[in-house]
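Subject: Protein entry, chain in single-letter code together with its fold tokens

Category: Structural biology, sequence-to-fold work with a learned token vocabulary.

Notation: Tokens come from a learned vocabulary of local backbone shapes, not from coordinates.

Start of record: The labelled sequence and token lines come straight after this line.
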Amino acid sequence: MTEDEAVRGLPTCPATYLIRDGAPVCTTCGAAVGGADADQIRHSTWHTALAALFATANAHRPAV
């Protein structure tokens, strides 16, 4: 498995949004996100940080 394939397997990036019942909903994790652009930016940043955290943890994981 390549690094790109591993990242695609994580439920973290990229965060995209659709409108459900008048509120933006993250299509990656299903969270209802505030209507302001800043809320979506903050949520997308959270997904990016989580992906980086997983990548760092996997880099330090002992090979089996």
In short: The chain has a mean pLDDT of 75.
